[in-house]
Amino acid sequence: MAPALINANPVVYEKKERPVRSRPGDGNFDEYATELIDQLEIFDHIRDIKDPEHPYSLEELKVITEDAIEVDDKRSYVRVTFTPTVEHCSMATVIGLCLRVKLMRSLPSRFKVAPGTHATEDAVNKQLNDKERVAAALENPNLVDMVDECLTPSYE
Amino acid sequence: MTLLEEESLKLTEVQRLEGHTDRVWGLAWNPATGADGVPAVLASCSGDKTIRIWQQRSPSSTSFDCKAVLEDTHSRTVRSCAWSPSGKQLATASFDATTAIWEQNGSDFECVSTLEGHENEVKSVSWNASGSLLATCSRDKCVWIWEVLPGNEYDCVSVLQGHTQDVKMVQWHPTVDVLFSCSYDNTIKVWADDGDSDDWHCVQTLGESNSGHSSTVWALSFNSTGDKMVTCSDDLTIKVWDVDIISLQSGDGNASWRHVCTMSGYHDRTIFSVHWSKEGIIATGAADDAIRLFAQSQDHSVDGALYKLLLKKEKAHDMDINSVQWSSTGDRLLASASDDGTIKIWKLESF
Q1: Of A85, A94, A105, B150, which one is least surrounded by beta carbons within 10 A?
Q2: Where do the coiled-coil regions begin and end (chain B) (predicted)?
Q3: Residue-wise over B213-235: b if at least 16 C-beta within 10 A, else e?
């Protein structure tokens, strides 16, 4: 028997429309301009990450929204506040790890990434922001497999 | 110290050491080098599972070369390293749950002993002043004390339980056999034994209720006389503590440590490393990629601040700074290690 799901029946929301952004080759694309990293770009990197428990994306489950992303390009700082489908979800650490790994791989190395949940006094947040614990977790092959599986759709 | 106050200080990068292929976590200067015509030796350890040994080209040179790469022993990140007081052994603590002891044999280093016992990641290792005891700590919440026996034998004499979380660092007092540990549980614990028995126990806990830190305590360091200790934390502060050194040295391991002051408002990201130089300068390395130097203030009149910021080196590295270490000889050389995979050697200069 498969282990019981933490949230067996999550609410699934519609995906947001994806606005077209200027890309190399477009008439008005200035390849010499420094491209600022904004909320939408961060959202694009993480919207398709798959929930560890469901075949839906974090966007579809509203675990992440564009509004819950704070970016300070000048200070190279990104904070993503995510909302697990159920409060105190034990999957929160895995989701946070996925967010952190995806952004570490997608953004220039100068960026500091801080994923966290809404629950203010939360052990999950402390763990996710302890880079030594994150480094040790990412040396655990089982956890890395789990993270990679969630991240696969976000590279497509 | 008066001199320092009057001087204009500058931290100049003298060399960038490249070779590690992942973040560099820890650094240790060999205490038996860097003086009396012996070129300074620095060890570094990394997420690439190796330890590198760097040696000064000549005693007065500021150029360092990589002399050895210690590999194929640890199977995971090497988190920290420490030289024995004689400089003959190097201990390395790894996420693979082991601590390795290395000795130099000609130009090669060989692993002469592997200390097993912790359940998971070993985070830190420290030798006592005489080199007869070694301490290690781990995410398993325990601190182990090992006795150093002849023939590269290490005997566990005590397993100290008291922290409720991951223990980040262990450090022996520079003159007395009293051990300090700091943790993810936000506290610093002081451990001592009852004279000659091996009955080690916690004699003091410095926590939030006694002016301690409100988040993970990452590191601690002592001044040269051992009557003061500085701690740094994820709560963005550094704190100075002191003790009655006479009673501590007369064998009273229970002598209690007192909060002296908190330096807040200087850091805006986690402070991972703090190190007190022999000369009295406190260096910090933080997640904002900067190095800061502090020293005791001479004029108490202005705002009553006991310590003041001497300088802040912004963008000292491209990424987080995990370790800052002053060379043991007082020549004002500072080494820093970073997530950017490099080590930098700095010279503190006055003009």
Answers
A1: B150
A2: none
A3: bebbbbbbbbbeebbbbbbbbbb
